[in-house]
Amino acid sequence: MTMRFARGVIAMVAALSLCDGARSVPSAAVPPWRIDPFPSTYHPLPRSDFLLTNATILDGAGRRIDHGDLLVRDGKVVQIGAALAHPAGMRVIDAQGRWVTPGIIDVHTHNGTFVVPLTDIDKESSDVSELNSPNVADTWIETAINVQDTGFSRALEGGVTTMQVLPGSSPIFSGRSVVVHPIQATNIAAMKVAGAPQGFKMACGENPKSQDADAHDIHGPTSRQGEVAYIREAFMAAQDYRDAWDRYARGKAATPPKRDLKVEALAGILAGDIHVNMHCYRSDDMATMLEVAREFGFTIGSFHHAAEAYKIPAMLRGAGTCAAVWGDWWGFKMEGLDGVRANAALLDRAGVCVSMHSDSAITGQRLNIEAAKAAGAARAIGIDVPPERMIRWVTSNSARILGLQTRIGTLAPGYDADLVIWSANPFSVYARADLVVIDGAVAYDRASPPAHSPSDFELGRTGAPHP
């Protein structure tokens, strides 16, 4: 075996172990920011193949199919259309009078860290933010999640099949996110979506500057200009760290650089391996952050909250940056004063990737209605958003923000069979999720009570825990 061939085998084995979620160590082939120290142990629930028939299907890609059929086999969508052939022995679900959509994707939750029921969100019950520094880029929110949070089961009942849990927005560099399926589990690894790109939370504006100004034991920026200077300095250090690992990978250095968990997360952003979710409200703040990203050569995947995003659609579109927004939150802080209900529709009309998000375990149970509210406001100003387009705001566009647009968010051959059968038009307040399917397995059936035990938070309560 030649030395060159041996090196190739070693690099291939390292790359394969990384893809499998196995624990690994940094090497010339695998830089440290690509390693996940908390691999997924998720396995799909027991599933069977089936054919859905006679439904009104919104495929998540802009198509509506009336009297449509959908074939699912081995946890994947195999075929979608009208009057599909019925394979022999296949289970058939007649969805006459009902609607079918991809599973809803919530890109901004704090489930498991702001645990429902809320008791003391600032102290014992909250692990949403680590506040020892404006830069806690070394933290992973999945290490803080309480899986007994009833917000997970309630989101599932609302048609949510995938969600991103983010750290809070007090630090500027808030840490890594995690993408999960809201199924019952005893630990977060069993909920974690295997192979999902790593995500990261950053924050600008009022939250981080106010936190640093108010905290007596934290020394950080107290103004917007201070935040920007702090961010630029941190990314300069990350450039040096990335370049040092690149020299090691090219054989220009005999030993790898000393690991720095904070800096390597930012180096992963610069390398394009970690997706940035940035908390920003004002258009001027977003414009500034886009300039910082341009300076350092990385992409901001999405601005979250983005109350004034409707003012800068060309900038967002040009940067390839999505906006994750609410239906009607504003006025609760200075940054939110210029928000408008039609924000999502205005961005969508301008060709911007837009997604509805919750930021709340309550809103997260009704994300379809968040989209409906935004579309209703759009109709009031002459913008018509049909259901087949609106559904993208909570499915395929959301999948793009997570970097999972080739796996979920769309009902098409080869995609994961994550879908919802609704009792009516999903953008009606009267609609209920009748059946929620994840990876081809029934995760929630409104007609049958859950077979598993309820969360510990619900033990001892009278009445059915699930409406």
Summarize the structure.
The protein contains eleven helices and 17 strands. It is of the alpha/beta class. Helix 4 packs parallel to helix 6 (283-296).
Task: Give descriptors for this structure.
467 residues, alpha/beta, TIM Barrel, eight-stranded mixed β-sheet, six-stranded mixed β-sheet, 26% helix, 20% strand, disordered N terminus
Itemize the secondary structure elements and their pairings.
Blueprint (H helix, E strand, L loop, with lengths): L2 H17 L30 E9 L5 E10 L2 E7 L8 E4 L4 E4 L1 E6 L40 H8 L2 E6 L7 E4 L1 E3 L17 E6 L2 H9 L9 H26 L11 H10 L3 E7 L2 H14 L3 E6 L7 H7 L2 E4 L17 H7 L4 E3 L10 H14 L6 H4 L5 H7 L16 E4 L10 E6 L2 E5 L22
Parallel strand pairs: 1-4, 1-5, 6-7, 10-11, 11-12, 12-13, 13-14
Antiparallel strand pairs: 1-2, 2-3, 5-15, 7-9, 8-10, 15-16, 16-17
Helix pairs in contact: 4-5, 4-6, 8-9
